[in-house]
Specification:
495 residues; alpha/beta; Aldehyde Dehydrogenase, Chain A, domain 1; Aldehyde Dehydrogenase, Chain A, domain 2; 6-stranded mixed β-sheet; binds NADP nicotinamide-adenine-dinucleotide phosphate; binds magnesium ion
């Protein structure tokens, strides 16, 4: 098996670099590899095997065999036990997994540990669901016995992004496997490493071969092969809206596989004059700058009621200036580098677009340092709704702040986007909180908080932010299909 010896200040480990198919480590059929870069210093960490269409075929065949064979025969109770065992193993390996995540993605080590903890909690939660998936008996006529079953869909292709590599891995695998499906998961080209460590834990937990297959590779090759595959029954994707559309087209053009999409956002964060200002500033700051702004639900459009606007901007600037940007392995760091040169360039081009359009840079607006993809926390004011920085997902530490007059105005501005992933309201008035939450067209609305996702609560998009829901009981629906069995008890109806 190919491995690399990796080391950070606090952990060292043997890093698998192959493709994990059928519980074995293999090289790609074509023997291709690609480099993995540390975004904090732009050095190459290692190289990993690249899956092509041929490897996708092999992984799908392994997942199909497991689905029709060992996994189908496994009891729900055992599926649950295996997921919980995997959760335990992830917790036991938290230092290694978190160090790997910080090295590969650049995220601050304290946040990386949080991600591993949440990934384990998600797997454990879905382990609990495995033996609680139930059907129904429905009475229609006296001579009929009808039951409705929930069945797994089959082989699921899963394509994940780089912003929360191990967490997205768990969000995807947990419900799919709990429901009795098998999986071929492709990680993001920028961040393949933590998923490969976790793949070893899949084997150690005792999952039968072929149930969970993990491949590294490129979206245009391996991702496209999964989405267009004739023997993949379902594809689940998290990433950009543009790629989400491509995946849906590929599903439509192949076997009409089921599709769930968790896409981008341009989420509004609404601060009313009666909000607790200290609290609101903390959450607005966390809402946009957490994970370096690389969150699909980032609160990137901040609207503040006009009576407190000037004070709020001043206080928010002071707060953002205190965010520690730097070495991901420093325990005090809040914001590390952006994930890649491509993302760095994209964000800097949005900052330029904001400046050119005449918006005011209140704070930041520049690269930080000369090595690594660090960007200063950036706040734009004097923005108008038609500006590119107000309409498009920037996916970096960049936000815009503007005023609103009253509740109606706040709701109108909050909904002035093609996206609908998340939104937040800051107020001390219960009526305002509920009225505005009900009026916002978003899959999640936070009140007096932000980014506080929990594995028990569904998460996903209205409008162009997606199809289906992650987390909670709702995510199981993405991985189950309904079967009706209708039994005739009486004599034949027509003689
Ligand atoms: P992306 O291209 O949408 O990547 C997400 C995943 O889809 C990756 O695994 C990617 O593979 C794969 N992919 C790409 N093209 C594909 C195709 N034609 N068929 C199947 N799979 C494909 O996102 P990105 O380019 O990394 O980032 C661009 C923007 O997307 C960001 O700036 C941000 O706005 C948004 N984004 C959103 C989220 C989210 O959580 N909703 C996460 C990441 C990015 P590769 O690894 O080869 O790209
Ligand atoms: Mg990409």
């Amino acid at each position: 098996m190919s491995t690399a010896q990796l080391k950070t200040a606090h952990a060292s480990w043997e890093q698998p670099t192959g493709l994990f198919i059928n519980n074995e480590w293999v090289n790609g059929v074509d023997g291709k590899t690609f480099e993995v870069v540390n975004p904090a210093d732009e050095t190459v960490i290692t190289s990993v095997a690249e899956a092509t269409e041929k490897d996708v075929d092999i992984a799908v065949a392994a997942a199909r065999k497991a689905f029709e064979g060992a996994w189908r025969k496994e009891t729900p109770e055992n599926r649950g036990k295996l997921l919980r065992k995997l959760a335990d193993l992830m917790e036991a390996n938290i230092d290694k997994l978190a160090a790997c995540e910080s090295l590969d993605n650049g995220k601050a080590i304290t946040m990386a540990k949080g991600d591993v903890g949440m990934a384990a909690a998600t797997l454990r939660y879905y382990g609990g669901w495995a033996d609680k998936i139930e059907g129904k008996v429905v009475d229609t006529t006296p001579d009929t016995f009808n039951y409705i079953k929930k069945e797994p869909i089959g082989v699921c292709g899963q394509i994940i992004p780089w912003n929360f590599p191990i967490l997205m891995w768990a969000w995807k695998i947990g419900p799919a496997v709990a429901a009795g499906n098998t999986v071929v998961l492709k990680t993001a080209e920028q961040t393949p490493l933590s998923a490969l460590i976790a793949a070893n834990l899949i084997k150690e937990a005792g999952f039968p071969p072929g149930v969970i297959n993990i491949i590294s590779g490129f979206g245009k090759v391996a991702g496209a092969a999964i989405s267009a595959h004739m023997d993949v029954d379902k594809v689940a994707f998290t990433g950009s809206t543009v790629v989400g559309r491509t995946i849906m087209k590929a599903a439509a053009g192949s076997n009409l596989k089921k599709v769930t999409l968790e896409l981008g956002g341009k989420s509004p964060n609404l601060v009313f004059e009666d909000a607790d200002i200290d609290n609101a500033i903390s959450w607005v700051n966390f809402g946009i700058f957490f994970n370096h702004g690389q969150c699909c639900c980032a609160g990137s459009r901040i609207y503040v009621q006009e009576s407190i606007y000037d004070k709020f901007v001043q206080r928010f600037k002071e707060r953002a200036a205190k965010n520690v940007v730097g070495d991901p392995f420093d325990a005090n760091t809040f914001q590390g580098p952006q994930v890649s040169q491509v993302q760095f360039d994209r964000i800097m081009s949005y900052i330029d677009a904001g400046k050119t359009a005449g918006a005011t840079v209140e704070i930041g607006g520049k690269r930080k340092g000369e090595k690594g993809y660090f960007i200063e926390p950036t706040i734009f004011s004097n923005v108008s709704e038609d500006m590119k920085i107000m309409q498009e997902e920037i996916f970096g530490p960049v936000c815009s702040i503007a005023k609103f007059k009253n509740k109606e105005d706040a709701i109108r501005l909050g909904n002035a986007t093609t996206y609908g992933l998340a939104a937040a309201v800051h107020t001390s008035n219960l009526n305002t909180a509920i009225e505005v939450s009900n009026a916002l067209r978003a899959g999640t609305v936070w009140v007096n908080t932000y980014n506080t996702l929990h594995h028990q609560l569904p998460f996903g998009g209205f409008k162009e932010s997606g199809i289906g829901r992650e987390l909670g009981e709702a995510a199981l629906d993405n991985y189950l299909q309904t079967k009706t069995v209708s039994i005739r008890l009486g004599d034949a109806l027509f003689g």
